[in-house]
């Protein structure tokens, strides 16, 4: 019995090590405070722990699941804060962290930032050149010395992967 | 390299869905051709696919400036403490309808509640577990509720006869192997009451219509299971002929190349043919069923019964 608990705990620790930055970055950019973001991050991993018996490795990525739960926790956090501000007439405190435009979309952006890093090479470089730097596909092929068909294929597979991940993040 | 029958050329292009590759071009930098614009004007499927790809391009551009932030060094021990605190193992916390919005979880914010070496309760599963889990809804479901509360799977695990297995054991194994955790890696389910036995994924589908009257006589489905890709063809009421047989082809979207996939048994409702993923990647996306005679001519007879373009499942 103890062994079972230990194994699960080790697995959770490993997931935290790998996905903690994903969850925490979404939270920081969404709630705008490191302290509040750590509360959200804690809630998300506690929620993962509570859900561990119902996780099933066949219907979406763990990253997508975590991003979705994080987005919802952040929305709860915003709702609670605005209730408190309304009830207690507390002045809104400016965010200590720049959240960027549309903090509610932080989950999408941060998830894709992580996925971009996980694309592997040469796909990651090709996607960065063609999508982020907005260079023409022929231009990317010339710069990398790759056939245009190869470049196009990487872009297509890469964007379809990114789209699939994005679609896992639900409101 | 065999040219398809000439009379089919005009039949395919005007109504054909835009291929993923073409949609990617349009989402990136290219202008739609006249016939593509016309198709997008009438086809919601292709419009939605283009919109979702354009959004992906936009979010990817924004994502490039995001630096991932690692949580502070003390957070993990606070999480561990929260896991071990029975007061926190509170189903209210996962049910937005029950939780009092004005009250924070007790102890979550309390730094004193974070001892490093709290023993793991041995009664991990003999103590009642909360009967709910937080899972996101299926991507296709619109849900007004911020989180969906679903019953936990109860089969096994808690009965006295069954031996407990680590719920996250598969995660641990995956982590140990250093696999699965990247893009397209570990997947998590929301279909709790269905056994997770069917990992086959539908990649693309085509509706098979007659070329002259556009009558729908069947469908073709490309599925992927692990590394195996199959083409399943279901067709009915195919125009009969004296003798001969029906052959299944994949035609390249350049309409210059085609490959034979196999011979269809007209008596069976549907049939599955193994194909190569590469064929699809290289643009062999038009499914064509032809009437062939036993004439020692391996090429397409030119007598197409039905045809349809594979489109990626949204």
What does this structure look like?
Chain A is mainly α and 171 residues long. Chain A has two domains: 1-101, RNA polymerase sigma factor, region 2, helix turn helix motif (Rna Polymerase Sigma Factor, Chain: A, Orthogonal Bundle), CATH 1.10.1740; 119-171, Arc Repressor Mutant, subunit A, CATH 1.10.10. Chain A is 74% helix and 0% strand. The radius of gyration of chain A is 19 Å and the shape is globular. The mean pLDDT of chain A is 83. With 314 residues, chain B is of the alpha+beta class. Chain B has a domain at 6-57 and 200-312: Sandwich (Immunoglobulin-like). Chain B has helices at residues 9-12, 20-28, 34-42, 44-63, 75-84, 169-177, 277-281, and strands spanning 132-135, 148-151, 201-209, 216-225, 228-235, 245-252, 258-264, 270-275, 284-292, 304-309, 311-312. In chain B, the strands form three sheets. In chain B, strands 8-5-4-3-11 form a five-stranded antiparallel beta sheet, with no helix packed on it. In chain B, α2 (20-28) packs across α4. The longest helix of chain B has 20 residues, at 44-63. Chain B starts with 8 loop residues before the first helix and ends with a strand. The chains are: A mainly alpha (171), B alpha+beta (314). Chains A and B meet through α1, α2, α3, α4 and α5 of A and α2, α4, α5, β1 and α6 of B.
